[in-house]
Amino acid sequence: MLTLYFCPGACSTASHIGLEEAGAQYVEKPIMLPKGEQKTDAYLKINPRGKVPALDVDGKILTENTAILAYIAKAFPDKKLMPADPFEAARGISTMAWFSNIVHPSYTHYMRPERFAADAVAQPSVKETGKKTFWTHLQEIDGLLAGQDFIMGKDFSVVDGYALVFYGWGLRAELPMKELANYTAFKDRMLQRPAVKKVLVSEDSVLIK
Ligand SMILES: N[C@@H](CCC(=O)N[C@@H](CS)C(=O)NCC(=O)O)C(=O)O
User: Fold this and answer.
1) H or E stretch including 18?
2) Tell me, what's the pLDDT at 193?
3) Are residues 169 and 99 part of one domain?
4) Cβ distance 207 to 164 under 8 Å?
5) What is the pLDDT of residues 93-120, one digit of tens each?
6) Model confidence over 62-88: pLDDT tens digits?
7) Which residues line ligand 1 (CB under 6 A)?
8) Could you identify the atom of ligand 1 that is nearest to the CA of residue 51?
């Protein structure tokens, strides 16, 4: 049995899309970050780091989008959610690691500057730098999509749901997302996918406003 712990609009949307694209049977457990539900004793028993997503697989917990998405792709091989070629599959993991380690934290600097500078005077600069850095990463993602439909090439993979999360965050940060023509076409292509649409509607995503 699979149970996904997620928050609408958070990076956990990537894992949510992965499960839906896999056609998996799973239970949804929303953890509302704005209400601090990630810090409750009950949730800290699931993920002591107090973060979403977490995926319960038959009573064992997997955290980190990169691992959850790699697991989903392996667990549902018929869906071909990662390239079959070992090098290409590793390249997919590499891109997700970059999303997780570099792209996501730049947005966190923008959203939560107080986590990076205790001095309130320094926080506006942390916020501004985070936003600028996030934008350069979005431009890089736009470049990755030049001449291809999906992040890994011509075929959809679990990496794509993760890439879509940052488009939505760019909209939230009021960045000029329309300037990113490849990324915008990709976002529109993703919205045509019934599984993606279902998740975004259920999460009341900024991507479908
Ligand atoms: N690298 C992790 C990042 C997880 C993460 O930072 N999740 C955020 C939501 S986007 C969270 O749960 N934040 C709650 C908090 O920091 O209190 C992943 O990809 O799963």
Assistant:
1) helix 13-22
2) 98
3) yes
4) yes
5) 999 999 999 999 999 999 999 999 999 9
6) 999 999 999 999 999 999 999 999 999
7) 10-11, 33, 38, 50-53, 64-65, 100, 104
8) 12
Q: Ligand 1 atom closest to Cα of 11? A: 10
Position in ligand 1 atom list of the atom nearest CA 15: 20
CA–CA separation, 101 and 103 (whole Å): 6
Rounded to an integer, what is the distance from CA 16 to the centroid of its chain? Answer: 9
189 and 90 in one domain? yes
DSSP letters spanning 98-164: HIIIIIHHHHHHHH-GGGT-SSTTTHHHHHHHHHHHHHHHHHHHHHHTTT-SBTTBSS--HHHHHHH
What pTM, to 2 d.p., does this model score? 0.98
How many angstroms separate the CA atoms of 53 and 84, rounded?
A: 25
Number of H helices, E strands in the chain: 9, 4
Token pair 């997997």: residue: 62
**Residues 65 and 90 reside in one and the same domain:** no
Same-domain pairing of 187 and 115: yes
**For residues 157 and 151, is the Cβ–Cβ distance under 8 A?**
yes
pLDDT, one tens digit per residue, over 145-183 is: 999 999 999 999 999 999 999 999 999 999 999 999 999
One domain for residues 53 and 94: no
